[in-house]
Specification:
Layout (H helix, E strand, L loop, with lengths): L50 H9 L4 E5 L3 E6 L4 E11 L8 E5 L30 E2 L3 E2 L5 E6 L5 E8 L5 E4 L1
Parallel strand pairs: 1-6
Antiparallel strand pairs: 1-2, 2-3, 3-4, 5-7, 7-8, 8-9
């Protein structure tokens, strides 16, 4: 079981648009660090853009698989199969009824990114998927009762697959 990403409904086929992010001072999830070798210091978007605009620009850097449930909303980046966009639909950042939903994961390129990744390590002669690998999905939406399988062919006779399932609550199951 693994934490998953979330965001707002898609604005274009295969992508998910950004929901307004909580204020610029929103804390990052403790204990989740960016993958080694990935430069997270470069924030996408124009100078003066709001955090929500920079987040939306970051989400456009990869094709996406939408996550839709009664409790979660977001997307998975198909580049790297990274869980990096997740909102908790039933929780808000304050008691105000119009305050933004709690943001659980945030993509690289946005301010203070935090995300979850899975990977393989193999012999140097064997190509394994990494943070730059673009996976294909057998569906555009992950939702309870509708698991999605991601696939990547390494060109050396190996097909890597990840089956991602989401239950009716908050649980993601990833089978590799």
């Amino acid at each position: 079981p693994v934490p998953s990403p979330g965001s707002a409904p898609g604005t274009a086929p295969g992508t998910v648009g950004a929901k307004p992010a909580p204020g610029e001072t929103a804390p990052a999830v403790s204990g989740v660090a960016p993958q080694l070798g990935v430069d997270t210091s470069e924030i996408v978007g124009a100078a003066g853009d709001s955090p929500a605009e920079r987040r939306a620009a970051a989400l456009k850097l990869s094709p996406r698989l939408a996550i839709v449930s009664s409790r979660l909303e977001g997307s998975i980046a198909l580049k790297g199969a990274r869980f990096d966009d997740l909102f908790l639909k039933n929780y808000r950042v304050s008691i105000e009824p119009d305050s933004p939903n709690v943001e659980f994961l945030r993509p690289t390129g946005a301010e203070n990114p935090y995300y979850a990744e899975f990977g393989w390590i193999g012999e140097k002669s064997l190509r394994t998927p990494n943070s730059g690998t673009v996976w294909t999905a057998d569906s555009r939406r992950l939702e309870p009762g509708n698991p999605v399988t991601l696939r990547w062919d390494n060109g050396q006779g190996l097909l890597f697959e990840r089956r991602i399932e989401l239950d009716n609550d908050y649980m993601f199951t990833v089978t590799q």
